[in-house]
Amino acid sequence: MFFDWDKSDITPDAAGTLDTAISAYADCGMARIMLAGHTDRSGTPKYNIGLSERRNTSVRAYITERGVPEARVTSEAFGESSPAVPTADGVRELQNRRVEITYGPGSGM
Prior knowledge:
Elements: H1 12-26, E1 33-38, H2 45-64, E2 73-79, E3 99-103
Parallel strand pairs: 1-2
Antiparallel strand pairs: 1-3
């Protein structure tokens, strides 16, 4: 799911994506969930780690408020270190402003 520039709030589009992920999770029993927060390269590396952590926190809050057990969710903040779309420093790229959600065997380790 993607985020607006310099934001960590859940948009209506993101909520729809998360609702789909929550429904799919319900079919997986008690699988582990891993949240991987990312940013584009428009801020400093230190700031972007914090922003990706805030994005993870927003996603975690959304899914746990809707029934996913908190104990099953782990997260890691990557900041700008793993872009989906490689860009030069300072470039704003929507696809890099994301939280990736994986669940099932091997997730959340």
